[in-house]
Amino acid sequence: MTVNTRMPKLDTEYPARWSESESGGAVRCTLCPRNCRIQPGCAGYCAVRENRDGRLISLVYGKPAAIQNDPIEKKPLFHFLPGTRTFSIGTFGCNLGCLFCQNSSLSRGSARSAEELSFYPPDVLAEAALMHGCKSIAFTYNEPTVWAEYAVDIAKEAKKRGLAVLLVSNGYISRAAAEELYPLIDAANIDVKAFTEDFYRTMCAGSLKPVMDACVFFKKELKRHLELTQLIIPGKNDAEEDINRFLDWTADALGLDTPLHFTAYFPAWRYHESPPTPPALIRKICERAVRRGFRFVHPGNI
Ligand code: SF4
Q1: 111: enclosing H helix or E strand
Q2: To test ligand 1's pocket by mutation, which of 19, 20, 28, 29 has the most ligand atoms within 8 angstroms of CB?
Q3: Are residues 176 and 153 in the same domain?
Q4: Core-most of 62, 144, 235, 287, by most CB within 10 Å?
Q5: Same structural domain for residues 70 and 54?
Q6: Distance between CA atoms of residues 56 and 58, nearest Å
Q7: Reported pTM
Q8: 5 lies in some domain
Q9: How many domains does the chain divide into?
Q10: 158: domain range?
């Protein structure tokens, strides 16, 4: 992964969108279902959207923390522009609080770290993608929803140059923001972390329903290419009835042509209670998905 050090620094007190003023100088961020009410001088849950004097600003606009030229299959996207490279970008911050986060150095990276990063304008990134022979730009590594303003601007520059735009996301986004960001995305992999509200509440400090809505909006309303990933954590989200409900919902709401990725978990961040996922468990779940009629089922991390 390339660390951002090359471009000149620029002070980017970038005004965040999807916000409303509230009493006492507070602002309400409406970018994701968390709807943080943020007091002056404080940041929202994702740590990268801050109230400065009654204005919501993005601390990570123009500040990629990681830039990498990746195979598209690494996202993972196995059924969109296969065999091509994607210019992959991530910043800091996340709007979920998964205890088992597999990428906490970026998702839980300090917003203050972003202040040390150099500024990359959206058009410079799009040009760099072309220069590196990539067919697409991917918003990935940390949760792109929390830097949606930057993602929208990069996507517009990418499209001007004929590049596809990819999203790797937890799908935890408000409808208003999705209506602006998602039409600019050609293909996405959305991480459905489990199929119970209890798991989302206790393990991710979030909720499942907005993620389901985002998947349906992207695939069925916008008719874009969607693949789903589920990280299997032994004893936490692998109950047969939960997997079956996930498969039934996906089949009914999104279709059996939706590629599914079941990936192995490794103890990380603040959750070490479950052992690493045995490869046999991943294979068993993949076989169940195939028996349910899914046409494209992929094991991962084994
Ligand atoms: S994007 Fe961040 S600040 Fe905005 S509502 Fe979500 S967690 Fe809160």
Answers
A1: helix 111-115
A2: 29
A3: yes
A4: 144
A5: no
A6: 7
A7: 0.95
A8: no
A9: 2
A10: 66-300
Name the CA dihedral angle for 229, 140, 220, 84, rounded to a multiple of 10 degrees: -90
| Domain membership flag for residue 3 | no
Work out the pLDDT band at 112, boundaries 50, 70, 90.
low
Residues lining ligand 1, judged by CB closer than 6 Å? 29, 31-32, 34-36, 44-46, 49, 95, 146
Do both 195 and 151 map to the same domain? yes
Cα radius of gyration (the chain): 19
Task: Give the number of the atom of ligand 1 that is nearest the alpha carbon of residue 43.
Answer: 3
**Mind giving me the DSSP string for 198-212?**
HHHHHHHSS-SHHHH
CA of 31 to the centre of ligand 1 (A): 6
pLDDT at 4 over 70: no
Nearest Cα residue to 32 out of 179, 142, 176, 128: 176
pLDDT tens readout for residues 114-141: 677 889 999 999 999 999 999 999 999 9
Answer for the pair 130, 161: CB distance below 8 angstroms, yes or no: yes
pLDDT digits (tens, 9 = 90+) for 17-69: 999 999 999 999 999 999 999 999 999 999 999 999 999 999 999 999 999 99
| Residues 211 and 190: beta-carbon distance below 8 Å | yes
Neighbours of 113 (CB within 10 A): 17
How confident is the model over 269-286, as pLDDT tens digits? 999 999 999 999 999 999
Give the pLDDT score at 105. Answer: 85
Which ligand 1 atom sits nearest the alpha carbon of residue 56? 3
Mutation choice for ligand 1 from 19, 35, 36, 173, CB with most ligand atoms inside 8 A: 36
